[in-house]
Write a structure and sequence with these properties.
The protein is an alpha/beta fold. It is 29% helix and 26% strand. Strands 3, 4, 5, 6, 7, 14 and 15 form a seven-stranded mixed β-sheet that branches. A six-stranded parallel β-sheet has the order 10-9-8-11-12-13, sandwiched between helices. A two-stranded antiparallel ribbon has the order 1-2. The longest helix has 20 residues. The chain is globular, with a radius of gyration of 20 Å. It starts with a strand and ends with a strand. It binds NADP nicotinamide-adenine-dinucleotide phosphate (NAP). The site of NADP nicotinamide-adenine-dinucleotide phosphate has 27 residues, from α1, α3 and α4.
């Protein structure tokens, strides 16, 4: 089969379309003919040699796919040849064929194309895990979502909105309109505003109940200061830096804060299966009636994969970048 391979760890120019062995599904796995995969920041780190595939996973890039069932393993009961699905992978999405455990595969929501479906798994599962499972966001609560126009951010805004919470985002100003369209109540331009001050003002001095953070050290003190009493923060990435030189921890005790971190890729199969099932119960009816949408920024042919990597690394995207596989 054809797949996007890496010559040597490094920049986007190291990516090329080559050939490799087609994966074989195990008893509980499905072989999927991939129609589309989507970019994740993790792909760029893996390309640079900074984020190796977990043991046992394909070393080919690609953490999610949408496509059609080509064949099924001996014990697969839920899927048949020709079914359309999308789902999360430990790796291997940038390829003509990929294998996925049958319990991790999710049907394409009614009325949705495979291109749109490829934009769902990683960001909606990550956002759902962060705000529903970990932070236990409640109706009426304020949630601050950093990088609001990122893939995960656009999913988090919509999910928080559907849970009856009030999303506030930070994003560069050109991306505010999209965030507001998706349901953010307020958008803060973190380049010109102090987000801590804006949050305190927008919440009448109370602070937000939940923060989803991707930035890390540069935001840590302001995040602690912007959280309300009994606030919860979920840290998902360090797009800024992970190391802090100084931090005043007093807000953690005084406000009884909970600071959590998570990476989805490292979770067990059982955890991901349960998360996928729970997301489907909550979100699939909403995708079907249009109250949730897959946010696709752009679609690149997979021959232009290097340009797609340059595009995400330039922070140009609002929502997901799709790679069309052929
Ligand atoms: N822990 C997990 O399980 C998990 C799962 C999925 C993704 N992630 C991580 O979550 C982060 C967001 O992922 P994504 O795919 O949604 O991102 P994305 O679509 O690539 O968007 C990232 C956006 O973050 C904003 N940003 C703010 N500060 C930044 C900074 N210091 N450096 C770079 N970008 C900055 C930029 O938008 P502005 O123009 O608004 O600045 C940028 O476009 C990534 O780091 C990803 O690896 C973690």
């Amino acid at each position: 089969m054809k797949a996007v391979l890496i010559k040597e760890f490094g920049g986007p120019e190291q990516l090329y379309l080559g050939t490799c062995e087609t994966p074989q599904p195990k008893a509980n796995e499905i072989l999927v003919k991939v129609a589309a995969t989507a970019l994740n920041r993790a792909d760029t780190l893996q390309r640079m040699g900074k984020y190796p595939a977990p043991e046992g996973e394909s070393e080919i890039l690609g953490l999610e796919i949408a496509g059609t069932v080509e064949s099924v393993g001996a014990k697969v009961t839920k899927w048949k040849v020709g079914d359309q699905l999308c789902g999360l992978l430990g790796g291997g999405g940038y390829a003509n064929y990929a294998v996925i455990h049958e319990e991790l595969a999710m049907p394409v929501p009614d009325g949705m194309s495979l291109i749109e479906a490829a934009a769902i798994p990683e960001v909606f599962l990550t956002a759902f895990q962060a705000i529903q499972w970990i932070a236990q966001l409640k109706e009426g609560e304020h949630i601050l979502i950093h990088a609001g126009a990122s893939g995960v951010g656009t999913a988090a805004i919509q999910l928080a909105n559907r849970m009856g919470a009030i999303p506030i985002v930070t994003a560069s100003s050109a991306k505010h309109e999209l965030c507001l369209e998706l349901g953010a109540r307020h958008a803060i331009d973190y380049k010109t505003e102090n987000f801590e001050e804006s949050v305190i003002r927008l919440t009448d001095g109370k602070g937000v109940n939940v923060i989803v953070d991707f930035i890390g050290a540069p935001y840590m003190q302001q995040n602690l200061n912007a959280l309300a009493i009994d606030g919860r923060m979920v840290m998902l990435a360090f797009l800024g830096t992970p190391k802090l030189e100084a931090l005043n921890l007093i807000p953690i005790l005084r406000k009884r804060l909970q600071i959590n971190g998570s990476t989805l890729r490292a979770r067990s199969l059982d955890y991901k299966v349960e998360l996928s099932q729970d997301l489907m119960r909550f979100a699939w009816p909403l995708f079907t009636d249009g109250r949730l949408k897959a946010v696709v920024d752009s679609v690149f042919d997979w021959e232009d994969v290097a340009d797609a990597h340059r595009y995400i690394e330039a922070n140009k995207n609002k929502g997901k970048i799709i790679l069309k596989v052929s």
